[in-house]
């Protein structure tokens, strides 16, 4: 007789278990970048003060590396603060704005969050197909996630039909 507690059974991982579904996925907001940016700036300030106060009296422990590290951390901290955009448009609203921009009834569509420019401005990249079966048109729309502006809109006949 075999003991049932020793049997190996296949089981879905928890993140794929459909009975544990708690709701739609919420994309994280880029404004969270302010927290590490502030931490980088605090550490940069402390490193600079330590370098400035101790560079003459204790050069073996506090070298010019503290100054270089402070400058590097300050640059990274300023970049983090400058790229911490507050997103006001979620993926559902991006799909609505994309539907308005393409000018045809949308059947299938998907949204992807991307970043553009040096300051990493959040943007929704929305791919839309027309509602016909098979789709006759498709469109690619870039929606700014900060102010809902249509950055770019490309509509063409579906080459697969």
Give the amount of beta strand, in percent.
15-25%
Give the SSE order as H and E letters.
Answer: HHHEEEE
User: Could you tell me the radius of gyration in angstroms?
Assistant: 26 Å
The overall average pLDDT, rounded, is 85
Q: Low-confidence segments, ≥5 residues, pLDDT <50?
A: none
Number of domains: 2
CATH class of the largest domain: Alpha Beta
Side by side, the strands of the main sheet go 1-2-3-4
CATH architecture of the largest domain: Roll
Q: Number of helix segments?
A: 3
First and last CA, distance? 61 Å
Work out the helicity level: 25-40%
Structural class: alpha+beta
Furnish the topology, listing elements before pairings.
Blueprint: H1 34-54, H2 64-82, H3 91-102, E1 106-116, E2 121-130, E3 137-144, E4 150-157
Antiparallel strand pairs: 1-2, 2-3, 3-4
What does this structure look like?
- Helix 1 (34-54) runs antiparallel to helix 2 (64-82).
- This protein has helices at 34-54, 64-82, 91-102; strands at 106-116, 121-130, 137-144, 150-157.
- The protein has a 4-stranded antiparallel β-sheet with strand order 1-2-3-4, covered by helices on one side.
- Helix content is 32%, strand content 23%.
- Strand 1 (106-116) and strand 2 form a beta hairpin.
- It is flat and about 80 Å long.
- The protein contains 3 helices and 4 strands; from the N terminus they run H-H-H-E-E-E-E.
- The protein has 2 domains: 30-82, no CATH class; 91-157, Nuclear Transport Factor 2, Chain: A (Roll).
- The chain has 161 residues and is an alpha+beta fold.
